[in-house]
Amino acid sequence: MLPENWEAIQTFQRCSRQWRYSGMGGPVGLDVQAIISVLSLYPLSPADQLERLDQVQLIERGAINFMNQPRH
Question: Structure pTM?
Answer without folding.
Answer: 0.87
